[in-house]
Amino acid sequence: MRSIWNGAISFGLVSIPIKLVNATENHSIHFRQIHLADGGRIRYRKVCELDEEEVQGGEIGKAYEDADGTMIPITDEDLAQLPLPTAKTIEIVAFVPADQIDPLQMDAAYYLSANGVPAAKPYTLLREALKRSNKVAVAKYALRGRERLGMLRVVDDVIAMHGLLWPDEIRAPEGVAPDGDVTVRDAELDLADALMDTLGEVDLDSLHDDYREAVEELIAAKASGETVRPAESGDTGGGKVVDLIAALENSVRAAKKSRGEAGDEGDGEMADVHPIKKTSGKSSASGKSSARTTRKSSAAAKKSTSKSTPKSTGAKKSTATTKKATAKKTTKAAAKKQTSSSGGSGAKKTASSRKRTSA
């Protein structure tokens, strides 16, 4: 980045050579003035009022206009001879907590770069001292022909300087606050807090200039000969007096919906609310009697079920007993058959042996 000023930081008896670099840049789209009849560009020419001739930049100087209209010429040499100790020096005058600086005083921002190798050590010393103290440095410096007030703080590993307006350049906010006493209820404050919590925090790096992008698209479309359709403008309700409570509630709902937060239904959408219809006394009584009848029939069904359950258990037990008795009878009969068959075979063997002996 190109430096716009070279000088030094005066830190007590320590001098730190630095370069001043712009920390911000303007991305606004600039337009030229043209002659509507033929599209020719309109230029401003510097013309002397006395001879009505155009004057070049080298012939133009500075002057102070007195109250009676008299012009008092002031040359660059006159300004250079003024006792300005901060002409090439950022003179630190104090170290204060950052919250003592009114944001209304904030002006342009710059980066301070160490100018040369010898400046690295004192530059780093000042940077680390600012970090450890959690304070900012208040300084005076001269830039573009005038002395200014500045604030030095640390951004990452760089010392940054914010130009500050002088205290007498801040206007008092007289007549700006609403007239009369305005009372705010606790319910309104609670809804405002809920809206603030719902909106939550934001990553500043994600914010961008929507209007500038729209202008760039418009320029590109016209350059290519396309027809530009006007965008639909939503009604913001500006200038209308609305119910504050309703507006806050709707704002909270809209903020939740835009962030995709789930509602009571858990689906991320607002649930439809339907009023409960009131019924007549007769229909209510009939409804109660039908409910009682239903409860009675349910109780009777439970009792009959509990009574039938023991009977089925007894039947299961008798069936099991019958099966056991039948099995015992079957076993006895099989044993008898085995005994009779074994006895008959033994008798046959004895008779045959007797026959053989007699023979």
The total of helices stands at 6
**Proportion of residues in helical segments:** 25-40%
Helix and strand content put the structural class at: alpha+beta
Intertermini distance: 146 Å
Count of beta strands = 9
For the CA atoms, what is the radius of gyration?
50 Å
Report the order of strands and helices.
Answer: EEEEHEEHEEEHHHH
Using the alpha-carbon principal axes, give the shape: extended
Q: Order of strands across the biggest sheet?
A: 1-2-6-9-8-7-5
Taking the sheet with the most strands, its summary is: 7 strands, mixed, barrel
Into which percentage range does the β-strand content fall? Answer: 15-25%
On the 0 to 100 scale, the average pLDDT is 76
Outline the low-pLDDT stretches. 263-291, 296-323, 333-359
Any overview of this molecule?
The chain has 359 residues and is of the alpha+beta class. The chain has helices at 76-80, 120-133, 186-199, 210-223, 244-258, 281-358, and strands spanning 3-11, 14-22, 62-65, 71-74, 89-97, 106-114, 135-143, 146-155, 158-164. A seven-stranded mixed β-barrel has the order 1-2-6-9-8-7-5. The chain has a two-stranded antiparallel sheet with strand order 3-4. β3 and β4 (71-74) form a beta hairpin. It is extended and about 65 Å long. The N and C termini lie far apart (146 Å). Residues 263-291, 296-323 and 333-359 have low confidence and may be disordered.
